[in-house]
Amino acid sequence: MLGFLLLAAFQQGQTPAPAQGLPPSPIAKIEITPAAPSMTARDTMRLRARALDAAGREVPNVTVRFVLASGARFEGRVAADGLVSSGATGRLPISVIASVPGTAPVTERIEVPMLPGAPARVVIDKAPNRLAIGQRVGLTATAYSRDNDPRAGDRIRWSSLNLAVARVNEAGVVTAVGPGKAVIRAGTALAREAGTIR
User: Fold this and answer.
1) For residue 111, which of 130, 98, 126, 96 has the smallest C-alpha distance?
2) How far apart are CA 46 and CA 148, in angstroms?
3) For residue 132, which of 41, 80, 89, 156 sits 20 to 30 Å off, Cα-Cα?
């Protein structure tokens, strides 16, 4: 029964408690590379780890394993050798377990942010298609990656293709100044979207 419970905990990404009665590990620190890992959603990345003693020297005869920590869901997975595969945007908790034979294992936990890819398109959110002359309205827009993940923090650039009809400032506030039709564009450095205001 005990073996089954330990196996179930491991399958859920939990790190079993260190064995009782083992001497302390010579490992004082686990150095993980890259030091502040992050990756693009639906990509892969290799994590590496070195076990160091209190003097900063690499400890010999160390076995290192990477496992999903508790709290991991569908965001991605990690192989025992440190290959991370991202499934979606979010944060992937990973436990890095280093052990020397005959001593207690040492565990360090990290989180890998999985971020949207580069902007591929921009969508203007709920834009009106008619304004009265003199009317002003604030527009917003959202940038999306090619995998349709929304991006936060992109600077949206606004422009009007007919300044005699409508003008728009850098904050996305449109002012109708004359009769006719105007195309309002919202974009980033890599993607843009256009909407027509009459």
Assistant:
1) 96
2) 25
3) 156
The reply to whether the predicted model has a pTM over 0.85 is no
The amino acid that residue 14 corresponds to is Q
Rounded to whole angstroms, the Cα distance separating 176 from 146 reads 33
Query: In angstroms, what CA-CA distances link 99 with 27, 66, 86, 190?
Result: 8, 12, 26, 46
Query: Any residues with CB less than 8 A from the CB of 158 and at least 6 apart, and which?
Result: 139, 168, 169, 170, 171, 172, 184, 185, 186
Residue 88 in tokens: 């979606």
- Look up residue 46 and give its two tokens: 């290799």
Give the model confidence (pLDDT) of 30-82 as tens digits: 999 999 999 999 999 999 999 999 999 999 999 999 999 876 666 789 999 99
**DSSP assigned state of 126:** S
Radius of gyration of the chain (CA): 26
User: Residue 131 in contact with residue 174, Cβ under 8 Å?
Assistant: yes
Helix, strand, coil tally for the chain in percent (to 5): 5, 45, 50
Cβ–Cβ under 8 Å, residues 172 and 156: yes
- Average model confidence (pLDDT) for the chain? 86
Highest mean pLDDT among 9-13, 66-70, 80-84, 121-125: 80-84
Residues contacting 148, CB < 8 A, separation 6+? none
